[in-house]
Write a structure and sequence with these properties.
By secondary structure, this protein is α+β, with helices and mostly antiparallel strands. It contains 15 helices and 7 strands. The relative contact order is 0.12.
Length: 379
């Protein structure tokens, strides 16, 4: 410490002591406050004075530490998903029989993968080839899970005579009923409208959403509010010589969870970790809570002579008729070709979703999917 700094320090100390003594002479009853002030002031000044007088030394030390931190490999550890943990994780207790087990499984998605030894490669190939999750969940090959127009009319206590001209509305007649306002660019829709609810992986079904179920045929159900427009569409198709067959309508949460957890269990039994099984299962089966089938507004459609849920349905007479006319009855081709980057689902020419005539017309006229419709027209 040089002489000038030392002199400055002593002068400050003497000044404080002088002021405290002066204060104590005037206020003897409060002398303890003067002493406390002197101790705090002198201690604080000495502390700051120490750093001030050694500023160059501390700056040099800080530069060295900064250089060391920035150049050390452990300063920015590269987090890999393939991290192995030494602890043994017991997965035998996982059964996949309840939504609680599913919630516990999803929790592992935020952790690093557990190390695995051997994995059945055929399971990975199966999952990677599953581009259309809902198609894998469908049971359209079972006769009890499909219904044509006659069967639906019988189930809804309507006339089963399909040829009754008075009950059949042609696609041309319905086209005249489509509101012109629906094609206006400034047309807007309410986000609370049940018809246009957006459900996907990024927008799961709200916890308070209630499905108003009605019977289509047998055990097949859907939202009761779409049964009438569905019948109108099927009647019109029948009049045009197209026999539409309904399959895979409403699926409840328990069934969706069962389908998903069964797939997870299968992958885990093949040697995969929790996270590997979950990620691959989500490619093969829709994650519970994010399927439109769970809200009763989505329906898969096949036809006579073509019962496969694949892209070939788009080339059938029924597939072409639906693509050109379904909007007139409030239905949209939910996952159209060329919109895969937006919907995150491959082309599904058999999957149709009810949104109401107005919204369906806007999407048809503007060649947009439901996600694009929401970003443009929904308030």
């Amino acid at each position: 410490m040089n002489a000038s700094n030392l002199q400055r320090k002593l002068s400050h100390k003497e000044k404080i002591i002088f002021n405290v003594q002066k204060f104590n002479r005037k206020h003897k009853a409060l002398s303890f406050l003067g002493l406390a002030y002197a101790v705090i002031s002198i201690t604080g000044y000495n502390f700051l004075f120490y750093f001030y007088s050694n500023a160059k030394r501390f700056i040099s030390l800080a530069c060295i530490l900064l250089f060391f931190v920035s150049s050390s490999s452990f300063s920015y550890p590269a987090m890999s998903l393939n991290i192995s943990f030494d602890s043994d994780m017991n997965i035998d207790g996982y059964t996949g029989e309840s939504t609680d087990n599913l919630s516990a499984l999803v929790g592992y998605e935020s952790q690093a993968e557990l190390s695995v030894t051997t994995v059945d490669e055929t399971l990975i190939e199966e999952a990677m080839d599953s581009n259309n999750p809902d198609a894998n969940e469908a049971e359209h090959t079972v006769s009890d899970n499909i219904a044509n127009l006659s069967e639906i009319l019988a189930a809804t206590s309507e006339s089963s005579e399909v040829s009754d001209e008075e009950s059949i509305i042609s696609s041309e007649e319905v086209e005249q009923q489509v509101p012109l306002a629906a094609t206006m660019a400034d047309y807007s829709f309410d986000s609370d409208d049940w018809q246009i609810i957006l459900v996907n992986k990024q927008h799961p079904i709200p916890d308070d959403y209630e499905v108003q179920l009605g019977t289509i045929s047998g055990s097949m159900r859907c939202d009761e509010r779409i049964i009438s427009p569905l019948l109108e569409m099927m009647r019109a198709a029948s009049k045009d010589g197209v026999n539409l067959i309904i399959c895979s309508p409403y699926r409840d949460m328990d069934r969706q969870t069962m389908l998903f957890t069964n797939k997870v269990d299968r992958y885990m039994n093949g040697g995969m970790s929790y996270m590997e099984a979950y990620n691959l299962a989500s490619q093969a089966v829709t994650v519970p809570g994010s399927s439109e089938h769970q809200i009763g507004l989505a329906i898969d459609i096949i036809c006579d002579g073509y019962s496969s849920l694949d892209e070939g349905f788009a080339d059938t007479t029924a597939g072409k008729w639906l693509a050109d006319n379904s909007y007139k009855y409030g239905f949209i081709l939910r996952y159209p070709l060329g919109k895969e980057d937006i919907t995150s689902i491959e082309f599904e020419p058999w999957h149709f979703r009810y949104v109401g005539v107005d919204a369906a017309t806007v999407m048809y006229e503007n060649d947009i999917c439901l996600e694009e419709f929401w970003s443009t027209y929904v308030d």
